[in-house]
Amino acid sequence: MRLIAALTILICGLGTLPAAATSATARHYALQTEASLVGYETDFGPDKITGTMPVTQADLTLDFHTLANCHVAVTLDASKATASFPFAAQALRGPLVLDAADHPQITFVSTAIHPTDTGAIIDGDLTIRGVTQPFTLVATLYRQHGTATDDLTHLEIHLTGIVHRSAFGATGWAEMVGDDVRLNIVARVAQTGA
Amino acid sequence: MRLANRPDGFGPVTRLLHWGMAAGILGMLAFGLTLVRMRMSLATVWLFGLHKSIGITLLALALLRLLWHRVSPPPGPLGGVPAAQLALARWTHRALYLLMLAVPLSGWAGSAATGIDVVVFNTLTLPPIVPPSEAGAKALLTLHHWLTWALMGLLALHVAGALKRSVLARDGTLSRMVLGRR
Questions:
Q1: Nearest chain A CA: its distance from B1 CA (Å)
Q2: Chain A residue nearest residue B49, CA to CA
């Protein structure tokens, strides 16, 4: 529901950030955990399994003038991953998929960020089950609802990407559950410090 | 009505347990074989829960049956059977009881190793009997698979033996389990 709410806000005309609103200064942001959502979706036969994973830590430095100065590091709590039905949640956290008992954290650390018309392509290293693989997220930046046009203190970042779970050794239930896990992340961040 | 077994015949409790479990095991074998070939979806995933629930019920019935045999020992085999056949029948029975315990236990353990609960008829959540482990899950589910095939083989041998005694020897072995007397 929070994802739907977030998307509704986007559709309601907040629009992407104007290029003129960028700043030359790198800004550090903290994730607004309660207002953010890491959602995923994967195939289960003809149906879909959906769920979320809580963010335990996020470190974001954004420089709207020089993207090379941007840095994103996010840690998710695999042991609290949810799914749309109980067996799926247990299977997801279990040793055949995320193996959350031995690898409770999923981490993503950016290595390069490339600008696009609406946001950025974020290349980085994704670690699942202790296996690190290169991974790409597509990011679209928005102002948060109720903020002024030139206010960059509160942002909403919509990130999408596809994880091929078998590349991380998460091969369980392959005969039933798809290999592609589609991430749909809504991150609301607030600038910290000066 | 006398519920217990007699020296020359099976009582109704033993016969009810025998035929009830026979129906349950044969049904579960067909169910399990169908399940592994079925394309799962949100509409069919509950069948795994049903499979586990029936399996645990059959495990409980197998334990009840062993307990009942301690309370009321079953009659011995009928005479006139070659010693080798008697020995084969005795070891087949022992192996069947072992597998009636081992097949559901390996399924329960395999499920526990995957980190997924065994919930009996959406009511009772059983404790995990092994810790979650990828290697354990794969080994135990493979063991469950092969023990099931061994059970099918032994059941075929058991049925063949019963039919041989009933149809060829006509010694009353089968009617003793159906009607309680020769």
A1: 46
A2: A87
Q: Do B115 and A90 touch (CB under 8 A)?
A: yes
For residue range B19-46, what is the model confidence (pLDDT) as tens digits? 999 999 999 999 999 998 998 899 999 9
Which residue type does A171 have?
Answer: T
- Nearest CA-CA distance, residue A102 and chain B, Å: 9
Domains in chain B, CATH or no CATH each? 12-178 (1.20.950)
Query: Up-side HSE of residue A157: CA atoms within 13 Å toward CB?
Result: 27
CATH code for the structural domain at A2-7+26-191 = 2.40.128.110
Interface probe with A: pick from B35, B51, B134, B141, most Cβ of A within 10 Å: B134
Domain coordinates of chain A in residue numbers? 2-7+26-191
Residue B69's pLDDT is 95
Q: How far is CA A176 from CA A25, A83, A169, B83, in A?
A: 48, 15, 16, 50
Q: Which residues of B touch A86 (CB under 8 A)?
A: 117
Tell whether A45 lies on the interface with B, counting CB pairs under 8 A: yes
pLDDT per residue as tens digits for the range B90-113: 999 999 999 999 999 999 999 999
pLDDT score recorded for residue B182? 65
Q: List pLDDT tens digits, range A78-112.
A: 999 999 988 899 999 999 999 999 999 999 999 99
Q: CB neighbours (10 Å) of residue B163?
A: 12
Query: Out of B44, B49, B132, whose CB is closest to A94?
Result: B132
Residue A6 has a CB neighbour count (10 Å cut-off) of 23
